[in-house]
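User: Sequence in, structure out. Go.
Assistant: Echoing your sequence, followed by the structure tokens.
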Amino acid sequence: MLQAKKLAGLLAFALLALTARAQTPAAPDTVAAVGRPRHGIQLFGLGRRPQQDVVDLYRTLFPKTQLAAHDSTALGDGHKFVWVIPALGYTQQTRLLVQLSGNVAFQRPGANMSTLVSALSYTQNKQLILTATTSIWSPGNRLNWVGDWRLMHYPQSTYGLGMHTTLDRSVLMDFNYLRFYQSVLRNIAPDLYAGAGLQLDYHWDIVSRTPTRELHRISRYSEGVSGRSMSVGPTLSVLYDTRGNAINPQGGSYVNLLARTNSRWLGSDGNYQTLLVDARKYLRLSPYSRDVLALWSYSALTLHGDPPFLDLPSTGWDTYSNLGRGFIQGRFRGKNLLYAEAEYRFGITRNRLLGGVVFGNAQTVSEDSYRTPDVLATRFERVVPAVGAGLRLNLNKVSGTNLSIDYGVGADGSRGLAFNLGEVF
């Protein structure tokens, strides 16, 4: 029955994507270099055979349908591409999922592609999820506005702290969640940006339960396990980004350093500081191929203090909820998290309508133990790997937006199916 649900979700995604519309005027089906970025949308049209997406497929199958042609020339002229896609899916943490996804892409003169990705979802586990992530570039890439906003009712299982937890001893945490992350970065050198922002995480109506009782401590940790929790503080960040298109990078590098100070005077439950180091590299293995080797390193560190339980670094709780394919969201949690992943992306059909990936990842979180009654030692003891493969359906050749369908298998019997609008990283 489980496999039937997964197959139904995959087919529904592929079929419903055909109903999407690209909001552009008619234009010749060509690809032009737009803007300064070295690894932007101009690369999506390379190759001996023109690239195709589901709009092109729809126009081929139903030639009498009035559906405008679309290409990067229109995007470079200042037009916007807007997609709204209804979909069905299945994940470990949600079970059956009904989702309405939206994607907007546009490009200002001499700038990287600006994107807004949003989704409204309701799941079989009675979770309601509204998300929006933005990366808006000003002309000439002088400023980059970055946002991550979420509103969620999200009952979810958690497994405690550290790497020595098991799947059969889960705790159900029922909570509501508001996330507001907003920052602005200014260009200070070629491809280098620095800026500041504000991040807020507010959880309320938190209830933690086992089959027999309600809990107020999990793995001896009591902060944010019941009631409510608030973390809010300013951020300072440095960004180096040569990708050009965050939806589907075809080359370049990305390094983001973000320091956050959560303070009681702003409303936080406690004072604590964190550091995020997110680094990615995209390698084109041949000038005659669109295949890409993508590398990802992600480190989320607690420098001082005790974050609320739900704000601790955890599997699948990065910005796009993609960290740790092969494991259920929240599988590993601790004060410090180290993660690495490699993915090889390749075409299956010559027109790039259908592609594929193979990937492998590894993660670890720190263990907390007391060397003496008053001294807390933090260390890493165990690393867990996962491997998997996936399919890519080209939804929009101009923005490079793929429908991503991945299946991963991790240590201790974990496995899972994951859907994404755009690449995982």
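User: And one key feature?
Assistant: The chain is about 5% helix and 50% strand.
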